[in-house]
Amino acid sequence: MTTGVFGGAFDPPHNGHLAVLSGAERHFTFARTLVLVVADPGHRTVRSPGDVRLALARLAFPEHDVELDEHARTVDLLRARQFDDPVFLIGADELADFPSWKEPAAVLELARLGVATRPGHPREALEAVRATLSQPGRVVFFEIDPVPVSSTDVRARLARGEAVDDLVPPAVDDEIERLGLYR
Description:
By secondary structure, this protein is α/β, with parallel strands linked by helices. It has a domain at 11-39 and 49-73 and 90-103 and 114-120 and 134-148. Helices cover 40% and strands 19% of the residues. The protein contains eight helices and six strands; from the N terminus they run βαβαβαβααβαβαα. A six-stranded parallel β-sheet has the order 3-2-1-4-5-6. The protein is globular, with a radius of gyration of 16 Å. The model has no long low-confidence stretch (mean pLDDT 94).
């Protein structure tokens, strides 16, 4: 039984995140899909507290299990949770940084990587990174529809007082507005 594991800061969750999860679910057969909001990401600064990002993620992914992840590093999460046949989902841009993650070889021992690609993203660069890994066969590419958005874009628009209803799910937009987040 394969478990899809989609972790991130989700600061805030946006339509690009939805595209990754949707594409993964079309490509893989998951018995369970888990969205994990990293409470304190070891690799980046977050603007909103974990409980706020968790609430936003639950609004963005209402059909999925969404939990707070207390592990700052993926390898620590995978060691602690011991999922059934996990596929850890990431975007193509994250694969370039994967060799610098904490114990990338151990991550590939504990899980397959499901890497979301999109038309126009150079596949040769992804293949070059995959070829350097200890278990390149544990990295599986799947295609998603391009959704040109990042959490940084969403926060920047909100800071300028601009609408983000085209970048985030409606329930997330409503909650950001209600709480006055990222202003």
